[in-house]
Amino acid sequence: SLGGYFTSFAMYENLTSNIDIFSAYISASPTVFYNNNYLINQFANATLKNQNKTKIYITFGGAEDAEFAAMIPVKRVEILTALENAIKTKNQIDYSGEIYTHLGHTDTPLPTFIKGINLMLKK
Question: What mean pLDDT comes out for the span 83-103?
Fold first, then answer.
């Protein structure tokens, strides 16, 4: 959750500064809706200074909706769509997002990192 948020935030910071540390990011079930969608809004309104090609793979578990329904009434597919819309408008970002239908929040990291590494290593 917060590790995925940190990864997404680190990507945002890297792209909006002249710092070029990483070119690929993998984020499993990030809490990007935290603080009234702060990070999603930051991406949507960002002016990117770093023009290098950057890849990101973001996932959620489909079962997370039921797990966190009382705390977070927004569906994961809506969060993923909002994030995709904010990020895909930036030309230098190669964005991939996915919902693992039958997985819960703590089940997403392993398949996310396996598939994410494969996506990042593709040329």
Answer: 81
